[in-house]
Amino acid sequence: MSVPAPAPGPAAPPGQPWKAAAAAWIGSALEYYDFFLYGSAAALVFPKVFFDASDPATATLLSLATFGVAYAARPLGALVLGHVGDRLGRKKIMVFTLMLMGLSTFLIGCLPTRAQVGTLAPVLLVLCRVLQGVSAAGEQASAGSMSLEHAPPHRRGFFTSFTLSGTQGGQLIATLVFIPVAQLPEEQLLSWGWRVPFWLSVAVAVVGWVIRRRLHETPAFARQAADGGVARLPLAVLLREHWADVLRVIAGALIASVSTVFTVWALAYATSDAVGMSRTAMLWVGALANLVALGAIPLWATLSDRIGRRPVYLIGAVGSAVAMTGYLWAISTGSYPLTLLLGVVAFGIVYSAANGVWPAFYGEMFATRVRLSGLAIGTQTGFAVAGFAVTFAAEIAGPGGDDWAAVALFTAALCVPPALAALTARETHRVPTELLGEHATRGASRRERVPA
């Protein structure tokens, strides 16, 4: 017997899909300005400021490990913020995560150095990075859920892609802000110059709060709450009814390894003595790649509204394995024009196919009452592995840090689980919003009716 569709919920105010998309874009841009700013500093500054500069290789390895610490904290943040978001609403999480990120990033800019307080300096750095990770755990899941549930059913891919184009926008802003800082004389860069971009996060938090506090809760969540359908323990419902989709999202989220290797390890490798490219030149590679991604992401997402999430996502996952190999090879040649070209292709175009479609692809796997929990827990668990891909890459690259082929093979291997996850997932781009995730609910209901 078929399950009747839920009754229509309260209508969203006019223009709310665009407002939700704009809030997702701007909030994610501001949030990930903070998050990715740390990546540039971890590759170029922190080894000399917070770690033992007399051993550059070990200092760089430890600095890159602190970049991954935030990813390790994200699954815990996802458990807490996912539960709250499915119980109390998407808007509250969106405001909270932005304020927490702004505060923790500002505090990083105020930290004493190793020369001033010894080993306490890296300890304080790690604590601030953990707070950044907790904040990021709820950001994309809440923004993605908000924009998906406000979007017209036939354009969910396009509207949810604003979350990820905002992420790329934040990465672009962080890179552009860091470029003039990186050009400072070494003494000024290491004493005060690196702190300025972190202090700017105060403005980030204020602007984001003004934008997000005016956003309405989604009709889907309002309907769920009005019908008494809000889960008391979203995690229990999620693991009972959607466990297979959670595993798919975890595997799919490993695609973020492409971003972390591109953003952090490749930057450190290109500016090392083994290659010798300038800091500013390599920062421009990231800036231009992210600029191209701002246009590519909504185009890929719009294509997914027409032909489906799976084929577009697979283009990004499989293509990234090949494109990143080409990019790392280009760096090894020392040719900057070739590095710039292949960097833009790999990260700006190819990776954007998977990056732009995953908010809709993953979000459509879950029912409304567990969507934020499913997105947060699934993505942040996978992202935790992706975050430490940088540390693993530094180890795989060998004592000289120049075995780019081994890192390329490692990055390609991490693209395999996302491809398999997409191949086993359902195509959902034509499923009505109110029926998303119903397959799992019906399956659980049938199992519950079977006598012991």
From TrEMBL:
Gene3D superfamilies registered for this protein in UniProt: MFS general substrate transporter like domains
Coiled-coil region(s): none
Major localization class: membrane
Subcellular location: Cell membrane
This protein's GO CC annotations: plasma membrane
Residue span(s) of domain Major facilitator superfamily (MFS) profile: 20-430
Membrane topology recorded in Swiss-Prot or TrEMBL: Multi-pass membrane protein
Keyword tags: Cell membrane, Membrane, Transmembrane, Transmembrane helix, Transport
Transmembrane regions: 57-81, 93-114, 192-211, 249-269, 281-300, 312-330, 336-358, 370-392, 404-423
Iron among keywords: no
Keyword hit for Nucleotide-binding: no
Protein name: MFS transporter
